[in-house]
Amino acid sequence: MVLRTFGWSFAVTAAGLAFAAWQWGWEAFGIVLILSILEISLSFDNAVVNAGILKKMNAFWQRVFLTLGILIAVFGMRLVFPVVIVAISAKVGPVEAVQLALDDPGRYQDLVTDAHPAIAAFGGMFLLMIFLDFILEDRDIKWLGWLERPLAKLGKIDMLAVCLALIALLATAMTFATHAHVSTGHADKTATVLLSGVAGLITYLVVGGLSGYFEDKLEEEEEHEHEEEEKARAEGKPVSAVALAGKAAFFLFLYLEVLDASFSFDGVIGAFAITNHIFWMALGLGIGAMYVRSLTVYLVRQGTLDDYVYLEHGAHYAIGALASILLITIQHQISEIITGLIGVVLIAASFLASVRRNRALAASGASGAEEVTAEEKATAQA
């Protein structure tokens, strides 16, 4: 099972490291390896959240996620994305941007760094909305009940998540961006941060709204499967349910890709602290992205999220932390080690809490309707 799921990741790792050593030497080998580990450590929470979405898809769309999705993740976000940033910032063509990266890597890095406020605002707002929508929803299973119960009550207020996100964006733009202008003399990034943050918010609302809409429609179809089949046959449209499933899966896939892009922002920017060689960066981050993809599928196939029910909570708390870090880094530098450790600690804590919960349920013999009550007692005791 492990080899079947991670086989491609192992093969890409071996081939990528061998190519780096052959083409550029042992220094490139070491840097590519470090970048791979960096990407995996920063993106473990991404895999957990992705698994919660991917498990709703059939085997075909899971394969699409691992094939077409990895091409988008590796070549789109890890190679093309930094080049596009430089091309826009320097007002040059993509070819000239690549040439700049090869001939003047220092200037290339400066241009990407200069674009960081816009990137961080977009990604931070997108991830913040994911966290807020999760934490403000009333769920049967709660990890930190003392926090999640009152927030679930507040979540009944319409558009509260959007309002909180916009307040965070305004505070970030006015506090950090303006402060950067006053204290360092750099160009005022307030307008840039605001526009990029609003774009991230709109992207979440559009993509998340479409995926949620079609997912709800798909669930309705599954609930009334037999009735809809008879109706479709009577109308001569036997494939209508299949077409709907395709739309639902497509928008969920699109949502996954935007989510992965938002998660990758910190990895791409953080990689410049290690190297400004675009091909070493793309290779190292790409290898890491392969493992994140494989881990996502592994979690789905093993049913890990069903067995360890707090993992999804921990991952979303890690998303909230990452969103905050991205917004803070508009003005202040934060080590990627801290970013990675926060995610690992939160997920590890949620995993251990899940283990304690499972032991408590097994000891009490709880099942069915009693499970939630027993789970809450276990959480309170923990």
Automatic annotation (TrEMBL):
Keyword Zinc-finger: no
NCBIfam families: PRK14013.1-3
TM helices/strands, residue ranges: 30-53, 65-90, 115-136, 157-179, 191-214, 239-256, 268-292, 313-331, 337-355
Lineage top rank: taxon: Bacteria
Protein name, as recorded: DUF475 domain-containing protein
Annotated keywords: Membrane, Transmembrane, Transmembrane helix
A Pfam family per the record: DUF475
Alphabetized InterPro entries for the sequence: DUF475 (IPR007427)
Organism: Streptomyces ferrugineus
